[in-house]
């Protein structure tokens, strides 16, 4: 009988898919190798022609780096898994609680697991006909935001029946983001046994060439720092970390900046990483352990690494605001 198929359909639902970078499944060399092979083969991440890059990647990089990186991951691994995955999952769960049962909140990773395709399928199986894709990067970069969305659209390309899609814009200058950063920083400074002379905002770097080719990440990061500096009553310095490869990367570099600050008389410092929504190898190990060692070895006295927004109440307030705005007309006018 015509119409009977429609009668058995699930009610139309709205979903939000939080997307983060991705991380190995385990802190061993084989898992890290698998993860790095996928990540560093992305032409949005390494902008060297594949015919030149793949032999270098398969030769030098994937034979030496996995063992070294696995050791670094082991130092920050959590009972629930890789920090990036643990905090991204906690964020999705807390946002689901905050938004209530009318909305389905899920999470996925651009590289590794859970994959974007598998979570899109799962959301559609639950009846999501409208999905907001939310890459959790405050500042837009081709290497992060765009590649996450590319991967989602590639999954949609295989679907006969696609959901309606919206995407979350970058939020680097959103007053709600700056307010969340300030609340988080103030909250983590309060219990310290010292008052820092300055804050250092350390961002993940990228090749200088990528900026010259028009990627807005650098300028958006500078704008975040300008707004954060205006909001804080401590001077806020800026630097770029995690250099990879031989090309020139964005400057000033984080460890060089810490060294310079000590020379200029800064003794006590707090370091924040506002370009990362969740703590990960690059924040916990590179800043919390290695950069700290550098600062103290150079003559610094007190070093505090302040956590990312993660799944904190201020993070959830922020995401409720951002997501709520993008869902306008979907959640309040849905029939
Ligand atoms: C937040 C923004 C990020 C940008 C921009 C970015 C660009 C970028 N990264 C690499 C190389 C590596 N990044 C690695 C880890 C890593 N990168 C980000 C974020 C950005 N990357 C995060 C959140 C993480 C942590 C992942 C985790 O599992 O915790 C690594 C791997 C770590 C290692 O092996 O030491 C590499 C390599 C490039 C080339 C790049 C270019 C624009
Ligand atoms: Fe990176
Ligand atoms: Fe690193």
TrEMBL record:
Q: Sum up the protein's function in the record's words.
A: Catalyzes the ferrous insertion into protoporphyrin IX.
Q: Where is this protein localized, as stated in its record?
A: Cytoplasm
| Highest rank taxon of the organism | Bacteria
Looking up Gene3D superfamilies in the UniProt record yields:
3.40.50.1400
Q: Which UniProt keywords apply?
A: Cytoplasm, Heme biosynthesis, Iron, Lyase, Metal-binding, Porphyrin biosynthesis
Query: EC number(s) in its UniProt entry?
Result: 4.98.1.1
> How is this protein annotated for GO cellular component?
cytoplasm
Pfam families under this entry?
A: Ferrochelatase
State the pathway, as annotated in the record: Porphyrin-containing compound metabolism; protoheme biosynthesis; protoheme from protoporphyrin-IX: step 1/1
**For this chain's UniProt record, which GO biological process terms are given?**
heme biosynthetic process
GO molecular function terms here? ferrochelatase activity; metal ion binding
Give the catalysed reaction(s), semicolon-separated.
Fe-coproporphyrin III + 2 H(+) = coproporphyrin III + Fe(2+); heme b + 2 H(+) = protoporphyrin IX + Fe(2+)
Q: What is this protein called?
A: Ferrochelatase
Residues annotated to bind Fe(2+): 204, 282
**Could you tell me which CDD domains the record lists for this protein?**
Ferrochelatase_C (cd00419), Ferrochelatase_N (cd03411)
Which principal EC class is assigned to this enzyme? lyase
The UniProt entry's sequence similarity note says:
Belongs to the ferrochelatase family.
Predominant location? cytoplasm
